[in-house]
Amino acid sequence: MYKMALLDIDGTTVTPLKSVTRKTKQVIHRMIDNGIIVCICTGRNVASTLPVAKSLGLTTPCMCIDGMIMYDPPQKKVIYESKLPNTVMRDVLSIVHRYNVNIEVITNKYYYWYLHSKEIRGYDFYTQNSNSLAIRLGSLFYKYMFGVRNIANLDRFFTDNDQIYEIVAIGDPSQTDSIKKDLSDHSNKDILTRMLWQNQLFITAKDVGKSHGLRILCEHFNISSDEVVAIGDDDNDIDMLKMAGVGVAMGNASDEVKACADYVTLSNNEDGAAVALEELFL
Question: What is the mean pLDDT of the chain?
Fold first, then answer.
């Protein structure tokens, strides 16, 4: 009945330590051998998605940055993208920079962090709520390998030609609300703003979201969304879970995500994704 499995990465396919378990690999390999399509749909950019796809043995297109980019690993190229011109994204960056917020600028390869204040909640989700020196040192290495680059200013984005796909403004509600209002007055009406995790304002082109990524993949493989099982754990997975034939929430997901799902599996520390895939496909 179901022809495709669509998997989130963080909090879903990988463990809390960001590794893929042997069981998950085995289940996915069995699915592929049975002719089932397995794809990734993630908030990660291309560079940080590919190592996970490779570890799973996937050669199918990956939907990255919440459905903005479809990347084909065998061809080593982007085969679909939804983006705003860099001139517009630079305007957006200038507007955001007027406010005292932390800023993340996402390109194909890197996550650039411009940190106005460490007092802003969630400024560094790798180490927040941890006083462990080992965790902090480990996070420095992991962030660098993941593609995070801390920057002292935003000048490079007004001179380099790297495409900016997404800008995230992290601040209090008064700041993010003001940014949203300023952007609503912008001459380009294709700017989309989405609030996630309460204080993070995501700014992209329209037609973005994991449900959009699901639609693009369904068109690519000529299947219906009713034939898709989607698995996720976080706020940005909700629209994907609702659109899929079966939406599966991880055991470690929030109550809001679980409420939007058809099925709740175990946590990502208990091979929850593999358990759900085995039950629904094998």
Answer: 91
Contacts of 276 (CB under 8 A, 6+ apart): 229, 231, 248, 263, 265
State the CB neighbour count (10 A cutoff) for residue 254: 13
> Which stretches within 5-131 are classed as H helix?
22-33, 46-56, 86-97
70 DSSP β-pair partners: 63, 80
Contact 218, 224 (CB under 8 A): yes
Domain that holds residue 102: 86-205
Domain end: 184, 205, 226, which one? 205
* Predicted TM-score (pTM) of this structure: 0.87
Same domain, 103 and 201: yes
Nearby residues of 143 by Cβ (< 8 Å), 6 or more positions away:
126
- Beta-bridge partners for 276: none
The structure tokens 């480990």 sit at 138
Indicate if 108 and 247 belong to the same structural domain: no
